[in-house]
């Protein structure tokens, strides 16, 4: 099949591109490279540098082209940054996504996978969190992802041929097992790569928030290995290809780990001691986010293979020690 991947030069997007190519799909990537990395894009894919906020360039790009499906990753991802720059997040994540969806659907694309987030739930009233949990995001980032889900839903109501799946990620983490690709955001906000950068540079690690309503007072998250995450996309795409409709799935393991537990595992795997500086919590961070993954397991047969915390940290350390230069 011919698949278009937006944001395919980013962390998860680049893993997705390789996975699609490995199953002999034809893949085209569009990415602005504002935060993605061209070197992360598999050379077997076609690459176009393009910003999804540029409606004219998007329209020109789609002219005369046919794609069997769209996997939409392009977007800003930082809860903290979104609280500082909500307008920036709205313009890119919501308006940019509207541009992509409207032009893609207008050109005949009727299968879409959307990279959503557990941040749409906000502070949960139930743990683990099911897909029908109330949506009350606590950050502009979560609000933009929820708004984009609603955009897809509205498009589906107007076009019965359109099928989509919104995949609500919990915490994507880890790297390729051979160290060939990994997590390299700029700016980086995720705990595992930040801890590893601190170890490799000898700098302090900032632990944000030690006053959460959790046993060790640090926030709890559900970590899913990026290799498992892309498999969830494959299964979701197969579902919308076979069964027309709109679907929402949590992508997680159902097991939470606190920030202190993650840092302890980083120290165990690396054999090094972190210099930790405790700081105030970041705006918009809920106490706990742990998935109820039973729906995707029962409906799609999804079962993570690489998502135990030690395996995640080991793969990330392999990539960081081989690839990051300071």
How would you sum up this structure, described in words?
With 326 residues, the chain is α/β, with parallel strands linked by helices. It has 10 helices and 13 strands. The chain folds into 2 domains: 200 residues, NAD(P)-binding Rossmann-like Domain (Rossmann fold, 3-Layer(aba) Sandwich), CATH 3.40.50.720; 105 residues, UDP-galactose 4-epimerase, domain 1 (Alpha-Beta Complex), CATH 3.90.25. β5, α5 and β6 form a beta-alpha-beta unit.
| Terminal residue distance | 40 Å
Looking at the structure, what is the overall shape? Answer: globular
Strand content bin:
15-25%
Which structural class do you get from the secondary structure elements?
alpha/beta
Task: Name the CATH homologous superfamily of the largest domain.
Answer: NAD(P)-binding Rossmann-like Domain
Strands of the largest sheet, in order across it? Answer: 3-2-1-4-5-6-10
**Percent in helix:** 25-40%
The string of secondary-structure elements, in order, is EHEEHEHHEHEEHEEHEEHEEHH
Low-confidence stretches: none
Counting copies of identical and different chains, the oligomeric state is single chain
Task: Output the radius of gyration.
Answer: 19 Å
Count of domains? 2
**Number of distinct helices:** 10
Mean pLDDT: 96
What kind of sheet is the major sheet?
7 strands, parallel
- What top-tier CATH class of the largest domain fits best? Alpha Beta
- Kindly report the CATH topology of the largest domain: Rossmann fold
